[in-house]
Amino acid sequence: MGGAHLQQPEPVRKIIHVDMDAFYASVEQRDNPDLRGKPVAVGGGEVRGVVAAASYEARKFGVHSAMASVTAKRKCPDLVFVKPRFEVYKAISQQIRQIFADYTPLIEPLSLDEAYLDVTENLKGIELATEIAEEIRARIKQTTGLTASAGVSYNKFLAKMASDQRKPDGLFVITPKNGPAFVEALPVKKFHGVGPATAEKMHRLGIETGTDLKAKPLPFLQQHFGKSGPYFWGIARGIDNRQVKPDRVRKSVGAEDTFRADIHLLEEALDNIDPLIDKVWRYCEGNGIRGRTVTVKIKFADFKQITRSRSTAMAIGSAEEVRDLCRMILLEQFPVEKGVRLLGVTLSSLEAGQPRQVQQFVLEL
User: Fold this and answer.
1) What is the pLDDT of residues 155-190, one digit of tens each?
2) What are the residues facing 40 on neighbouring strands?
3) Given 28, 57, 114, 321, which residue is catalytic?
4) Do the annotations mark residue 302 as ligand-binding?
5) Owning domain of residue 60
6) I need a surface site. Which of 123, 177, 247, 289 has the fewest CB within 10 A?
7) Which residue among 71, 86, 101 closes a domain?
8) Is position 115 within any domain?
9) 19 annotated among ligand-binding-site residues
10) Is 245 inside a domain boundary?
11) What CATH number does residue 29 fall under?
């Protein structure tokens, strides 16, 4: 028989978002029984630092990551500060990644403590994504002693939203049937991909919920939100066609430090930026990556911050080259009127590859 073949419908995708519960803080509580049940903040010292992670006991007091340590201590006087141990967190993250790999090669890590998995076709031939998510959570608990929450849905946006619904140690499923209704009821400030500034802008335009967002036509969203317009139009309808990308390329590598006392002199800045450069370069060496753009972040005593960048025509080949670029940037900024409380260094425009032969690097003007 001739004639056209019927087009097979696309299979509904099965996406899992796995998110470790208060990961850094939970590791510290696991390894030190004295910290269990107590409000714990992983991060800088009590005076100048910033909270990198907070235990659930600390969160009850309103302590959260990226909060200044001073504020955190004010909100929770009994807060226990613990220095981060990134090597330990990385090792545990690798254990968790190996568990994921038993089910699918399509793993997109977002950070040490969360990842997307596409299990539409999975290595164990398990039909239900929910069953896979339950198995993964049980194995993480058994292997690491830590709990993970998971969201299961037919796209990345909804899987991410779902993993927040039953935290900690929970699982939530959003089916194709109830996806659009779930989004309609949600306040836009809770949408993944809508930061505080965007949420504020949406509120000014009369967009408070998914229903309000859905009511706005695509040209309106493009006019006000540019390239993000089509994404917002889609997620308001429970549509998100982004693929789970296992080879997600890291866009930048950075390190920063908040100082115990503000610094005012160029010499101090150069001394303090050196270890940050070394840290960034060690990461690049260890992962066989190079970059072409160096950015220095300077945060002043009044919390105002600036960033200044320099790019090279070819990939930077040594820590010394990074140092020279940072030195140039700092020379242009000093002397400073206000003290500096934080310095940061980021290397971007990353590419894989061996270090090139040592040669003069050319600044792109």
Assistant:
1) 999 999 999 999 999 999 999 999 999 999 999 999
2) 80
3) 114
4) no
5) 23-86
6) 247
7) 86
8) no
9) yes
10) no
11) 3.40.1170.60
